[in-house]
Amino acid sequence: MGSDNMSLKEKSIVFIGFMGVGKTTIGSLVAKKLYRDFIDIDQEIEKEFDMPTTEIFKTFGEKVFREKEKNIIDFYSKQKLKIISVGGGAFLQEEIQKICLSNCIVFFLDLSWESWKERINLIIDSRPVLQGKSLDEIKELFYTRQQYYMNHHSKVETDNLDIESVADNIVDALKTAWELYDEH
Ligand SMILES: Nc1ncnc2c1ncn2[C@@H]1O[C@H](COP(=O)(O)OP(=O)(O)OP(=O)(O)O)[C@@H](O)[C@H]1O
Ligand SMILES: O=C(O)C1=C[C@@H](O)[C@@H](O)[C@H](O)C1
Ligand SMILES: [Mg+2]
What we know:
The chain crosses the membrane at residues 12-31. The protein is α/β, with parallel strands linked by helices. It is built from nine helices and five strands.
């Protein structure tokens, strides 16, 4: 595995982080700014099952969702020049971490708990993993998940920044890296 035959500039970009940090929103904006295709893994899974994530969890269970998630990420991460947002639970699978870190440039979108909890109402209805949990339980999940996101190439601070600013910071960081490390 790996992407030895790909230049840094050709590698696909992957966004990771907890539910609701902005992977889908920011990923699609970065794709637009770089004129690249945007792939949202949750949306790809929903297309394959032709039902929303909550229904997939109810009908087939989380295990089936996770297996499909791994297969779709494996497929797209090996392609060039994509901008990929994975689901908040994708990096719980070590295999997915390995696939993404070896083939792509992985950005971790970081958001503090204090800022995140202001956003909960925007996302709770469509995220089955959050449903039926108290705020304290969600807080515990938020902190437990952080260890998985530590496996990345670059961390992006998002607290108190609007979507446009975060996307611009990412594009700037990429352009700097491409200039510094690509040999041509
Ligand atoms: N920097 C930001 N400032 C304010 N609101 C934001 C910011 N980033 C994202 N949001 C809002 O937070 C909500 C969740 O964002 P988004 O769906 O992109 O998260 P996600 O990381 O893709 O979540 P999931 O892992 O569950 O797919 C959206 O309503 C989005 O508009
Ligand atoms: O954090 C998670 O476990 C999840 C996040 C979402 O992006 C979806 O992938 C799904 O709702 C599971
Ligand atoms: Mg998303």
